[in-house]
Amino acid sequence: MNRQLVIALVCIISMIFFTKESQAAATNELKKGMTGKAVMQLQIKLKEQRYYTGNPTEYFGSDVETALKKYQTTKKLKVTGVLNDQTSMMLFGKSVAAFIKQYPNSKTTTASYDPYSKKEQVTTIAKQYTGVPYKFGGTTTKGFDCSGYVGYVYNKVGTELPRTAASMYTASSIVKKPVPGDLVFFKNTYKKGISHVGIFMGDNNFISATSSKGVAVVSLSNSYWKGKFAGSGSVIN
Protein backbone atom coordinates (compact mmCIF):
# COMPACT_ATOMS: atom_id res chain seq x y z
CA MET A 1 0.00 0.00 0.00
CA ASN A 2 1.58 3.28 -1.04
CA ARG A 3 2.15 6.17 1.31
CA GLN A 4 -0.50 8.47 -0.27
CA LEU A 5 -3.22 5.84 0.09
CA VAL A 6 -2.33 5.32 3.76
CA ILE A 7 -2.52 9.07 4.40
CA ALA A 8 -5.91 9.25 2.63
CA LEU A 9 -7.30 6.39 4.73
CA VAL A 10 -6.07 8.01 7.93
CA CYS A 11 -7.76 11.29 6.96
CA ILE A 12 -11.08 9.54 6.19
CA ILE A 13 -11.03 7.63 9.48
CA SER A 14 -10.21 10.83 11.36
CA MET A 15 -13.09 12.67 9.68
CA ILE A 16 -15.54 9.89 10.56
CA PHE A 17 -14.37 9.89 14.18
CA PHE A 18 -14.55 13.69 14.41
CA THR A 19 -18.07 13.73 12.93
CA LYS A 20 -19.29 11.15 15.42
CA GLU A 21 -17.68 13.01 18.29
CA SER A 22 -19.26 16.27 17.13
CA GLN A 23 -22.68 14.66 16.83
CA ALA A 24 -22.34 13.16 20.30
CA ALA A 25 -21.31 16.51 21.74
CA ALA A 26 -24.26 18.19 20.03
CA THR A 27 -26.69 16.00 21.99
CA ASN A 28 -25.21 16.75 25.40
CA GLU A 29 -27.67 19.59 25.94
CA LEU A 30 -30.90 21.16 24.75
CA LYS A 31 -30.97 24.94 24.71
CA LYS A 32 -32.67 28.01 23.32
CA GLY A 33 -32.90 28.01 19.52
CA MET A 34 -33.05 24.22 19.17
CA THR A 35 -35.93 22.30 17.63
CA GLY A 36 -37.24 18.74 17.63
CA LYS A 37 -39.60 16.24 19.23
CA ALA A 38 -37.35 16.00 22.28
CA VAL A 39 -37.87 19.73 22.84
CA MET A 40 -41.63 19.20 22.83
CA GLN A 41 -41.33 16.34 25.32
CA LEU A 42 -39.26 18.58 27.58
CA GLN A 43 -42.04 21.18 27.51
CA ILE A 44 -44.67 18.53 28.27
CA LYS A 45 -42.67 17.31 31.28
CA LEU A 46 -42.17 20.85 32.60
CA LYS A 47 -45.87 21.55 32.09
CA GLU A 48 -46.81 18.42 34.06
CA GLN A 49 -44.78 19.80 36.95
CA ARG A 50 -46.30 23.29 36.51
CA TYR A 51 -43.12 25.07 35.51
CA TYR A 52 -44.26 25.64 31.93
CA THR A 53 -47.65 27.15 31.09
CA GLY A 54 -47.66 27.35 27.29
CA ASN A 55 -48.81 24.88 24.66
CA PRO A 56 -45.92 22.51 23.83
CA THR A 57 -44.22 23.00 20.44
CA GLU A 58 -41.01 21.69 18.89
CA TYR A 59 -39.23 25.02 19.38
CA PHE A 60 -37.04 25.85 22.40
CA GLY A 61 -37.83 29.52 22.98
CA SER A 62 -37.36 32.05 25.77
CA ASP A 63 -40.41 30.71 27.61
CA VAL A 64 -38.88 27.21 27.82
CA GLU A 65 -35.59 28.68 29.00
CA THR A 66 -37.42 30.57 31.77
CA ALA A 67 -39.33 27.44 32.82
CA LEU A 68 -36.11 25.44 33.02
CA LYS A 69 -34.49 28.13 35.17
CA LYS A 70 -37.44 27.97 37.57
CA TYR A 71 -37.12 24.19 37.74
CA GLN A 72 -33.35 24.39 38.30
CA THR A 73 -33.80 27.00 41.02
CA THR A 74 -36.41 24.89 42.83
CA LYS A 75 -34.26 21.75 42.61
CA LYS A 76 -31.13 23.68 43.67
CA LEU A 77 -29.32 22.90 40.45
CA LYS A 78 -27.00 25.21 38.54
CA VAL A 79 -29.35 27.74 36.93
CA THR A 80 -28.59 27.88 33.19
CA GLY A 81 -31.90 27.56 31.36
CA VAL A 82 -30.26 24.70 29.45
CA LEU A 83 -31.19 21.03 29.70
CA ASN A 84 -27.81 19.55 30.59
CA ASP A 85 -27.08 16.08 31.97
CA GLN A 86 -27.49 17.18 35.60
CA THR A 87 -30.95 18.64 34.97
CA SER A 88 -31.96 15.79 32.66
CA MET A 89 -31.07 13.18 35.30
CA MET A 90 -33.26 14.99 37.82
CA LEU A 91 -36.14 15.53 35.39
CA PHE A 92 -36.09 12.30 33.33
CA GLY A 93 -33.73 9.98 35.22
CA LYS A 94 -31.36 9.75 32.23
CA SER A 95 -28.72 11.72 30.36
CA VAL A 96 -29.63 14.19 27.61
CA ALA A 97 -28.24 11.85 24.95
CA ALA A 98 -30.32 8.94 26.28
CA PHE A 99 -33.40 11.16 26.46
CA ILE A 100 -33.02 12.36 22.85
CA LYS A 101 -32.36 8.79 21.66
CA GLN A 102 -35.97 7.97 22.56
CA TYR A 103 -37.09 10.11 19.62
CA PRO A 104 -35.23 8.70 16.58
CA ASN A 105 -37.22 10.77 14.10
CA SER A 106 -36.39 13.96 15.95
CA LYS A 107 -34.02 16.46 14.37
CA THR A 108 -32.80 18.12 17.52
CA THR A 109 -30.57 20.76 16.02
CA THR A 110 -29.87 24.41 16.50
CA ALA A 111 -32.24 26.19 14.16
CA SER A 112 -30.36 28.00 11.40
CA TYR A 113 -31.67 31.45 10.72
CA ASP A 114 -34.39 31.22 8.12
CA PRO A 115 -36.96 34.04 8.39
CA TYR A 116 -39.58 32.13 6.41
CA SER A 117 -39.20 29.05 8.60
CA LYS A 118 -39.47 31.19 11.71
CA LYS A 119 -42.58 32.92 10.39
CA GLU A 120 -44.09 29.51 9.66
CA GLN A 121 -43.49 28.62 13.31
CA VAL A 122 -45.31 31.82 14.26
CA THR A 123 -48.44 30.82 12.33
CA THR A 124 -48.37 27.28 13.72
CA ILE A 125 -48.12 28.53 17.29
CA ALA A 126 -50.68 31.30 16.73
CA LYS A 127 -53.40 28.81 15.76
CA GLN A 128 -52.92 26.86 18.99
CA TYR A 129 -54.55 29.66 20.97
CA THR A 130 -57.72 29.93 18.91
CA GLY A 131 -60.64 30.43 21.28
CA VAL A 132 -58.69 31.96 24.16
CA PRO A 133 -60.93 34.73 25.54
CA TYR A 134 -60.25 38.43 25.19
CA LYS A 135 -59.05 40.37 28.21
CA PHE A 136 -58.04 44.02 28.04
CA GLY A 137 -54.40 44.20 29.15
CA GLY A 138 -54.14 40.40 29.01
CA THR A 139 -50.84 38.76 28.14
CA THR A 140 -51.45 35.13 29.16
CA THR A 141 -53.55 32.18 28.02
CA LYS A 142 -56.15 33.14 30.62
CA GLY A 143 -56.98 36.08 28.37
CA PHE A 144 -55.26 38.20 25.69
CA ASP A 145 -55.66 41.63 24.26
CA CYS A 146 -54.44 42.04 20.67
CA SER A 147 -50.84 43.06 21.34
CA GLY A 148 -50.56 40.78 24.36
CA TYR A 149 -51.47 37.85 22.12
CA VAL A 150 -49.08 38.77 19.31
CA GLY A 151 -46.26 39.39 21.77
CA TYR A 152 -46.91 36.05 23.47
CA VAL A 153 -46.78 34.14 20.18
CA TYR A 154 -43.64 35.87 18.96
CA ASN A 155 -41.91 35.29 22.29
CA LYS A 156 -42.38 31.57 21.62
CA VAL A 157 -39.97 31.82 18.68
CA GLY A 158 -37.49 33.98 20.57
CA THR A 159 -38.57 37.40 19.26
CA GLU A 160 -39.45 40.01 21.86
CA LEU A 161 -41.88 42.70 20.72
CA PRO A 162 -42.94 46.03 22.25
CA ARG A 163 -46.11 45.91 24.32
CA THR A 164 -48.62 47.93 22.26
CA ALA A 165 -49.94 47.71 18.70
CA ALA A 166 -48.68 51.23 17.96
CA SER A 167 -45.16 50.47 19.20
CA MET A 168 -45.11 47.20 17.23
CA TYR A 169 -46.05 49.20 14.13
CA THR A 170 -43.14 51.58 14.78
CA ALA A 171 -40.73 48.66 15.28
CA SER A 172 -41.81 46.87 12.08
CA SER A 173 -40.36 47.08 8.61
CA ILE A 174 -43.34 47.95 6.42
CA VAL A 175 -44.10 45.38 3.69
CA LYS A 176 -46.54 45.77 0.79
CA LYS A 177 -47.24 42.06 0.40
CA PRO A 178 -47.24 40.23 3.74
CA VAL A 179 -46.30 36.57 4.03
CA PRO A 180 -47.74 34.27 6.70
CA GLY A 181 -46.27 35.23 10.04
CA ASP A 182 -46.01 38.96 9.28
CA LEU A 183 -47.98 41.49 11.33
CA VAL A 184 -51.07 43.33 10.11
CA PHE A 185 -52.15 46.61 11.65
CA PHE A 186 -55.44 48.45 11.99
CA LYS A 187 -56.30 52.01 12.93
CA ASN A 188 -59.11 53.88 14.62
CA THR A 189 -60.72 50.84 16.29
CA TYR A 190 -61.28 51.70 19.94
CA LYS A 191 -59.07 54.79 19.73
CA LYS A 192 -57.43 56.99 17.08
CA GLY A 193 -54.27 55.84 15.37
CA ILE A 194 -52.80 52.32 15.24
CA SER A 195 -54.89 50.44 17.78
CA HIS A 196 -55.06 46.79 16.72
CA VAL A 197 -52.56 44.18 15.54
CA GLY A 198 -52.85 40.62 14.24
CA ILE A 199 -50.79 37.94 12.51
CA PHE A 200 -51.21 37.36 8.78
CA MET A 201 -52.06 33.69 8.11
CA GLY A 202 -52.18 33.64 4.30
CA ASP A 203 -55.17 33.44 1.94
CA ASN A 204 -56.13 37.00 2.95
CA ASN A 205 -56.79 35.90 6.55
CA PHE A 206 -55.33 37.06 9.83
CA ILE A 207 -55.60 35.91 13.44
CA SER A 208 -55.93 38.25 16.40
CA ALA A 209 -57.53 38.70 19.80
CA THR A 210 -60.73 40.74 19.60
CA SER A 211 -63.23 41.79 22.24
CA SER A 212 -66.07 40.09 20.33
CA LYS A 213 -64.54 36.69 19.49
CA GLY A 214 -61.37 36.28 21.53
CA VAL A 215 -58.54 34.75 19.48
CA ALA A 216 -59.98 33.99 16.04
CA VAL A 217 -59.14 33.95 12.34
CA VAL A 218 -60.88 36.62 10.24
CA SER A 219 -60.67 37.70 6.62
CA LEU A 220 -59.01 40.99 5.73
CA SER A 221 -61.98 41.47 3.42
CA ASN A 222 -64.32 41.56 6.41
CA SER A 223 -66.36 44.77 6.11
CA TYR A 224 -65.20 46.08 9.48
CA TRP A 225 -61.50 45.23 9.27
CA LYS A 226 -61.13 46.22 5.62
CA GLY A 227 -62.02 49.80 6.46
CA LYS A 228 -59.60 49.87 9.40
CA PHE A 229 -56.60 48.25 7.70
CA ALA A 230 -53.44 50.37 8.10
CA GLY A 231 -50.75 48.15 6.56
CA SER A 232 -48.51 45.21 7.28
CA GLY A 233 -45.03 44.84 8.65
CA SER A 234 -42.26 42.37 9.43
CA VAL A 235 -40.22 42.08 12.62
CA ILE A 236 -38.36 38.97 11.39
CA ASN A 237 -36.01 39.95 8.57
From TrEMBL:
For the NlpC/P60 domain, which residue ranges apply?
A: 116-236
Q: Which UniProt keywords apply?
A: Hydrolase, Protease, Signal, Thiol protease
Gene Ontology biological process: proteolysis
Q: Which residues form the signal peptide?
A: 1-24
Q: What domain of life does the UniProt record list for this protein's source?
A: Bacteria
The reply to whether Flavoprotein figures as a keyword in the UniProt entry is: no
State any single GO MF term. cysteine-type peptidase activity
Q: SUPFAM superfamilies in the record, alphabetically?
A: Cysteine proteinases, PGBD-like
Supply the InterPro entries for this chain.
Answer: NLP_P60_dom, Papain-like_cys_pep_sf, Peptidase_C40, Peptidoglycan-bd-like, PGBD-like_sf, PGBDSf
What family does the entry list?
A: Belongs to the peptidase C40 family.
Q: Under what name is this protein listed?
A: Hydrolase
Q: Which organism is it from?
A: Gottfriedia solisilvae
